[in-house]
Records
---
Amino acid sequence: MHIIVGGCGRVGAELAERLSDEGHDVVVIDNDQGSFAKIGINFNGETVLGDITDREVLSRAGIERADAVAAVTPSDNANLMAVQIAGRLFDVPHTVARLFNPQREPSYRKMGVRYISETSMIVAAVRNDIQPDSFPVHLAESTDQVQVVEVLVTAAGRGVSVAEVESEGDTRVAKYIRGTRSRIPRQDDRFLTDDVVVCAVKRSGAARLRTLLAGGT
């Protein structure tokens, strides 16, 4: 895969290194030349100096042939703009934005932007651990065969029931979010467009889940 990483802070540098180690073609963009020193000496990818929201800079990074873009700068606005440019103007199939302000999460969901909210993850983990009798928070590693994922339901998934999602035995629905409310699912519950479905899924069942609820997107 040809992957562009926007931002070469600690997160961007480590992400670029790991992707490169896995054999991907990685290009890192940052507007500070000194930031590239954070990348380890075994990195086999390329670096591009510039703004991740600049179309010319993205073109130099190979956006036209990119399979994925990860925007992980310290700026929510820059990250959002970068993934929107990648997805809407260059049809990059996989994009994800780093998000610092958790108040923007509903807007990102509504826009269909895939994001990682570190603040929400940390708050949830700490809140969980300080409560008695709480379940531990699990984060899936790359070697895990089961992932905990969120799927935004598109028009293709409208009317699909929880029972249909779980019918193959490779997926279990934990909850779904409709508007501002989270709901514990029943087997006969049917999803609506823009619902966010949280479920555990085997890697082998991920493609079926995407097709069922999001039309393969």
---
Amino acid sequence: MPEQDDTEREFDLRWADAAPHKEPSARARMLAARWKEDPPRPVPFRGDPGPAAPQRSSWLSTALVLGCVAGVILLLGWVRLISNF
């Protein structure tokens, strides 16, 4: 391959994808070395998620948010009413 300037050099992705051997990533090499000494334990396809948290009603959450908004509106109105006196 003739020498080219850096501005003319272009990485050919098709040429790189057609390479016969691809080196594994650093993470893959690290895991392979770690697992050679201490292989991972088998894990079920879907592990047990553990105890489920109690579900709250969406109406309760909505009422709480709307109540807070109403409280802030009333508080701001009260502060404005007091400041006018």
